Automatic annotation (TrEMBL):
Main location: mitochondrion
UniProt-listed CDD domains: EF4_II (cd03699), EF4_III (cd16260), LepA (cd01890), lepA_C (cd03709)
Boundaries of every Tr-type G domain copy: 29-210
Name the UniProt record assigns to this protein: GTP binding elongation factor GUF1
HAMAP family the record matches: LepA
Binding positions (GTP): 38-45, 103-107, 157-160
Reactions mediated catalytically: GTP + H2O = GDP + phosphate + H(+)
Length: 583
């Protein structure tokens, strides 16, 4: 994979200008808070870069590609994981405007980040690729903005592409979202075509926030990160009043008081200011030591002027769980501190200590989705140099004990179907999460030659015909390989596991039966034939030291084995069966 250099936004500070703005004189009527939302790859980050360049927040150089995508994984994978914010100053018809842009991630796994950003905005730019048209996440993101009653400006991007068809995409937007086609703006973010118009329409169409500096100070925390030197840096949107350095503030969620140490704008690098005022968006450092003290959705107010808290957010709920273990137990402490540091910045990951006889001490981590898990793992490896074994992901089940389980349809149940245009159809299905979590998206993409797109949301628990499947070695159950599978899938899953084990366990002095069982019923079997590795076969003569050396080597090899019944199983065998896939 090609590695791109990480470009820190601070590096750009020398290129910025237009900073000498007295924020106290900035009327709320000339503030616009907006987000860019889109299906993945439709060009949000490219448009954000152009907007930053055109308003002078960053210089126009090739280096600026996707300035808001700060993390190395984001740059490598070309996806936005964490939302970033930038305040832009823009002159329009002789007036200066403050445009607060909040970048949002495009992938379904991070949709909770989209909703948190949206709650600090009055409008959104809904980007649609001029060739691909409306995709699954375009629809999901549209509804997030629509339900929050925001102004939605449709932007058709990539009109420079040879096979761009903006007429067709406008018709789709009119049909699916009921937005008149005349409201669409056609642009090429890459070439900068018509991007100025986007800035004008942000000013013209999106209303200013309905807030007043005369009200008591009230701010929404819409993001927070952890800085080793300063503690928590909270991104805040001011819904009323003003705040200055030295003020005593309280977080509504925990009721704890703090002193404001630092305040500022994000341009997108941090620019300290003395005060922030109603309608503005910026950052605050107030001696909080843990991101849990500045929870997303929390309300901040002045200690002497308590206010009613803002509605807040639903906490992000993990949907996919996987075990993470150090490659070697001696790396346990290092991996633990890496996981701790990474979760300081990502409060949506849940961590529980776990241990497995085969893999040793480790953790069971909960993620919002599969991509979220992969990104977390990649960050562990890149930013903390940790080598990790990740087990196959599982999804949460609720078990009803000792009663007959209800038989329900395992496959997707169709909910509705809408024709977007002559070639495209949008279908809604109810699926068991387990069916879509591993390779559904890859399969869907390859079956549709890359045309289909997919999005999902949690529809709650449903009864299903699930069973516990055991793996036996010469009749002894291997606890760490026990899994929950759907009854109809049990045979193929059992067979696959037996085959993998057969390939990973060396022959031993006796025959080994590898079996998959449901209760007392054997559903799959492989046999490993008897064989003795005679380590002395190569020593013809009687060189006793050489003999001893070889015997010692064999004994060391056995230490890496775990004995189940009379069968020695190498650690690698467990790793092969449990881990998700080869890198
Ligand atoms: N031809 C053309 N390509 C574009 C245009 N805008 C963006 N792209 C390309 O489309 C790809 C995706 O663009 P990004 O800006 O990374 O997309 P994104 O929506 O931010 O992606 P996520 O942050 O992962 O959701 C990149 O290769 C861009 O160079 C455009 O106007 N024309």
């Amino acid at each position: 994979m090609k590695r791109l250099p990480v470009l820190r936004c601070r590096d750009l500070s020398s290129h910025t200008h237009q900073d000498a703005v007295d924020l106290s004189k900035f009327p709320v009527e000339r503030i616009r808070n907006f987000s860019i939302i889109a299906h993945i790859d439709h060009g949000k980050s490219t448009l954000a870069d152009r907007l930053l360049e055109m308003t002078g927040a960053i210089a126009k150089t090739e280096k600026n590609k996707q300035v808001l995508d700060k993390l190395q994984v984001e740059r490598e994978r070309g996806i936005t994981v964490k939302a970033q914010t930038a305040s832009l100053f823009y002159s329009h018809q002789g007036q200066q405007y403050l445009l607060n842009l909040i970048d949002t991630p495009g992938h379904v796994d991070f949709s909770y980040e989209v909703s948190r950003s949206i709650s600090a905005c009055q409008g959104v730019l809904l980007i649609v690729d001029a060739n691909q048209g409306i995709q699954a996440q375009t629809v999901a993101n549209f509804y997030l903005a629509f339900e929050a009653q925001l102004t939605i400006i449709p932007v058709i991007n990539k009109i420079d592409l040879k096979n761009a068809d903006p007429d067709r995409v406008e018709a789709q937007i009119e049909k699916v979202f009921d937005i008149p086609r005349e409201e669409c703006i056609r642009i090429s973010a890459k070439l900068g075509t018509n991007v100025e118009r986007v800035l004008q329409e942000v000013v013209n169409r999106i209303p200013p926030p309905e807030v007043s500096t005369d009200d008591p100070f009230k701010a929404l925390v819409f993001d927070s990160t952890f800085d080793h030197y300063r503690g928590v840096v909270a991104n805040i949107a001011l819904f009323g009043g003003q705040v200055k350095k030295g003020d005593r503030i309280v977080s509504a969620h925990l009721g704890k008081a703090y002193e404001v140490n630092e305040l500022g704008l994000l341009r997108p690098d941090e620019r300290p200011t003395d005060r922030l005022y109603a309608g503005q968006v910026g950052y605050m450092v107030a001696g909080m030591k843990d991101v849990k003290e500045a929870q997303i959705g929390d309300t901040l107010y002045l200690q002497q002027q308590p206010v009613e808290a803002l509605p807040g957010f639903k906490p992000a709920k993990p949907m996919v769980f996987a075990g993470m273990y150090p490659m070697d137990q001696s790396e346990y402490t290092g991996l633990r501190s890496a996981i701790e540091r990474l979760t300081l910045n990502d409060s949506s990951v849940t961590v529980q200590r776990d241990s497995s006889l085969a893999l040793g001490a480790g953790w069971r981590l909960g993620f919002l989705g599969l991509l979220h898990m992969e990104v977390f793992n990649q960050r562990l490896e890149q930013e903390y140099n940790a080598s990790v074994i990740v087990t196959a992901p599982t999804v949460p089940y609720k078990a009803v004990l000792s009663s007959a389980k209800l038989i329900k349809n395992r496959r997707g149940v169709q909910k509705n179907m809408v024709y977007i245009d002559d070639h495209r159809v949008m279908m809604k299905y109810l699926f068991p999460l387990n069916e879509i979590v591993v390779d559904f998206y890859d399969l869907l993409k390859s079956m549709s030659s890359g045309y289909a797109s997919f999005d999902y949301e949690n529809a709650g628990y449903q009864a299903a015909d699930l069973i516990k499947m055991d793996i036996l070695l010469n009749g002894r159950s291997v606890e760490e390989l026990t899994t929950i599978v759907h009854r109809e899938r049990a045979y193929s899953a059992g067979k696959a596991m037996c085959e993998k084990l057969k390939d990973s366990i060396p022959r031993q002095m006796f025959e080994i039966a590898v079996q998959a069982a449901i209760g007392s019923k054997i559903i799959a079997r492989e046999t490993i034939k008897a064989y003795r590795k005679n380590v002395l076969a190569k020593c013809y003569g009687g060189d006793i030291t050489r003999k001893m050396k070889l015997l010692k080597k064999q004994a060391e090899g056995k230490k890496k084995m775990r004995r189940i019944g009379n069968v020695d199983v190498p650690k690698d065998a467990f790793i092969n069966v449990l881990k998700r896939k080869d890198k």
